[in-house]
Amino acid sequence: MLKVENLRTYFKQAEGIVKAVNGVSFDLHKGDVLGIVGETGSGKSVTVKSIMGLIFPPGYIAGGKILFHTDEFSSNGEREYVDLAKLPQEDFTRIRGRHIGMIFQDPMTSLDPMYTIGDQIIETLVWHKNINEEEAFERAVQMLEKVGIPKPRERMGSYPFELSGGQLQRVVIAIAMSCDPEVLIADEPTTALDVTVQAQILELIKDLIAQYDGSVIFITHDLAVIAEISSSIMVMYGGMQVEMADTQTIFEDPLHPYTIALLNSIPRLDESRELNPIPGQPPTMLNPPEVCPFLPRCNRASEKCEKEMPRLIEVEPGHWVRCFPK
Amino acid sequence: MQLKLLRVENLKKYFPVRQGFFIQKIVAYIKAVDDISFEVERGKTFGLVGESGCGKTTVGKTIIRLLNPTSGRIFLENDNLASLKPSELKPYRTKLQIVFQDPMSSLNPRMTVGQMLSEPLLFHGIVKTREEANKVIAELLKAVGLKPHHIDRYPHQFSGGQRQRLAIARAISVKPHLIVLDEPTSALDVSVQAQIINLLQRLQEELNAGYIFISHDLPLVRYMSDEVAVMYLGKIVEKAPRDELFDHPLHPYTKALLAAAPVPDPRKKRDRKDLIGGQVPSPINRPSGCFFHPRCKFRMPICEREYPPTFTLDSSHEVACYLYR
Questions:
Q1: Tally of domains within chain A
Q2: Do B197 and A275 touch (CB under 8 A)?
Q3: Average pLDDT of every residue of chain B
Q4: Does A277 sit within 8 Å of B192, measured CB to CB?
Q5: Would the ipTM clear 0.85, i.e. be above it?
Q6: Which residues neighbour A48 within 8 Å (Cβ) at sequence distance 6 or greater?
Q7: What is the pTM assigned to this prediction?
């Protein structure tokens, strides 16, 4: 459905070039739930913003392809690959919201406080689906019911400030899902919520994924959340993907030193053990040297690491690692 | 009997809700902290968990008297801090310190590391001269894992983890007996969080200080604490030694919190039957009876009428729920 090849997104700054995303590649198939994990500044949000066409100056896509399989622009109704990296802004409105839906981190800032939640769902539907407002109203009520908002018909006239954070995130999910997008991107959708509400939202997203026939990209910094929801995981560090495999493999047989260190540095509820922090600080992305970004913090670094950048290699089917073999 | 480092008894903190433009009337109170009691010993960590708005931060701020308690007693060793005037508090400031959540807003951006760390030392008369202060600061910086040459830098020149180290250095500079840690790692990345947590544990051994560890992160609280209390809408609903609370939770709210916390293991599926719906009600308008009853699966008629008293089981496990009558 979506094929990202060697994506590079840079930001021009006075001090130099910030290489926020530096050569990311992945395929997203129908039914996949791809989890992207990484720390602040690892490039996970910029990756999906590039896919959504939400990179604005001084940011630019410096290279790579984002191939999206769609029939939106074809003349004969057949699906074809469209390179989103080269799509002009005015055509992006036909993709964004219609074919790729997005859920952001903070529901309070992703909804307009001046409009009722009903208006905001109807707007999306009328714009993308070419239906009249009455039909859209009914569809919106159904969507709200689907995401578990009690008394959806009455809630249509509510303003965002009248709802709690968890309810608002449900509304945002309803908007994102209202046009049945093929790809749903969720950027830290539960980070701003309390644990009990987070669990409710995760269960809702899981239920929707099960019913819905598309694929999901789920971004988070929380390994526990990703373990629960995704079918495969991409670990990002310093703008690069360092490891990519199915969820089971990442947790049970991680290969990249960063993935291993990350798993050892989180406290767990179900077992007590020592915490092993990763020494040092996350890298800055300004003019990074052409070596592995994890090198200064790595406990397995060798001389070879200081000379060349490891390539992303497939060590076993479906398990990709950017590190030299031991 | 040995004297406890800190003893909090029936602490209450109410915030008035005012209405009106010219003539303001108090129309209600937000009972942020409502009659809570607990004790902290030297060298031990007391964990305080709860969702946002449950009053856990207010507890921390009231204990160090950044906020004045509405009623209740706060005994630090022998002295009741709750009854002291602000001017009388100065000698206690060296015994009580706090580390806040966001180091960017708790450090003064216009002060260098040297200035911000020498201020408490000189103010409390721990050192007499700037030269002495600089010597102590160099040691402090080393203790928190920074370099002595960082002394002339400003907060913006540090990363988030390093800034939190500075905030910790400032808190330990007066050798406090009790440190309130208000979500000290929630603004940090996981790999850096582990560094700070290990640092805090090492410093606790060196200072033999008592910690009050406030967090919403259950695995972290389990890792840090010796005793844990769970708060809901201003009240402690359950309090027990760490393993007891996490392995045998009693209160339905504690069970729901534990069920809701995701586990970083794809093989373990969450137990949906303990999950709860709804969200935390507003603290202005708390439900009648037990505040948790609208979300509780085990509610009984009495729960809607009266707030349950605290029942003590096995001498150390306290729970406020009628199920354990």
A1: 1
A2: yes
A3: 89
A4: yes
A5: no
A6: A36, A102, A185, A187, A217, A219
A7: 0.85
User: Rounded to whole angstroms, how far apart are CA atoms B244 and B241?
Assistant: 5
> How many Cβ atoms are within 10 Å of B192's Cβ, its own excluded?
25
Residue B256, min C-alpha distance to chain A (Å): 7
Residue B271 Cα to chain centre, angstroms? 29
Task: Report the C-alpha gap between A112 and B291 in whole angstroms.
Answer: 33
Interface A:B, Cβ pairs < 8 A:
125
Confidence of residue B273 (pLDDT cuts 50, 70, 90): low
pLDDT in tens, B1-49: 567 889 999 999 999 888 888 888 888 888 899 999 999 999 999 999 9
Residue A50 lies in a domain: yes
Chain B neighbors of A251, CB-CB under 8 A: 264-266
**Least CB–CB distance from B194: residue in A223, A251, A276:** A276
Residues in chain A closer than 8 A to B237 (CB atoms): none
Report CB contact under 8 Å: A248, B191. Answer: no
Is residue B50 left, alpha or beta, with left meaning phi > 0 and alpha meaning psi from -120 to 50?
A: left
Domains and their CATH numbers in chain B: 6-95+176-324 (3.40.50.300)
- Give dist(CA A312, CA A321) in Å, integer: 5
Task: Tell if the CB–CB gap between B159 and A194 is shorter than 8 Å.
Answer: no
Comparing CB atoms, the residue among A194, A247, A277 nearest residue B266 is: A247
Domain assignment present for residue A282? The answer is: yes
